[in-house]
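To: structure desk
From: M.T.
Subject: fold request, one chain
Message: Could you run this one when you get a chance? Sequence is below, nothing fancy, just the single chain.
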Amino acid sequence: MALKEECEVLNEMEEKEQYDKHCDVITGEKYFSCSQTEKTSSRKRAQKTGTKNYLTCFQCGKCFNQHGKLKIHVRVHTGEKPYTCPRCGKSFDLLRKLKVHMAIHTGESPFTCQQCGKSFKQKENLNNHMRIHTGEKPYTCPLCEKSFNQDGNLKAHMRIHSGEKPYTCPQCGKRFDLHGNLKVHMRIHTGENPFPCQQCGTSFTQKGHLNTHMRIHSGEKPYTCPQCGRSFDLQGNLNVHMRINTGENPFTCQQCGKSFTQKGRNCGDFFKF
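Reply: Done. Structure tokens follow.
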């Protein structure tokens, strides 16, 4: 497809999205443009009580003050992805995600960091990146006051407090707070191991697991005991080792009452670092 045709497709999608935003669904069956004065009972109740969020997701109970926001949110549950790339056919739930994706085909990254030279497809991504250099964390959790450099990271963090898990596995029904965690979980069902070791061919479901595995080949031991200087390839192994210094034995055998530094199946499986 020619670049001109692709631009026309994106423009049509954008016009449709703007129209959808302009409309406001009150009952789920009736649309009202912003020029109409008729109100539904839902809106009237919201006005009387001063409630701003009067549109509710029937699957998770989350509330919204605009139909457009509710409509986008529902795609989390339905998996709907109405915006399709005209080049490769990949689909997205949001138009802005499609626009970012299209830059893969064009190779365009017009926004460049003046400090490190890294380029980005979106100005928003450059702004987020700049906080690495400035240390700015403008998004603060109102419950625990932890701060974040991106709004999306704050939203994900808030699910720790709310317990919200909006991403559901379609095969087993297990729920997750982050879409990335669902993607990793799905590999249990598909058997996909997309991260292979270039040295021995062992494959992994997560990049982090591959990085940990690579230390077998490189001999890297990035976790060092501050008391004796001994180094370890895993944080967990350092934690177990540190119990030698603290005297902590948090795992107790239910049969004999003996305690150990590391969890095991029975006394014969316990050992100390």
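Reply (cont.): The chain has a mean pLDDT of 80. Let me know if you need anything else for the meeting.
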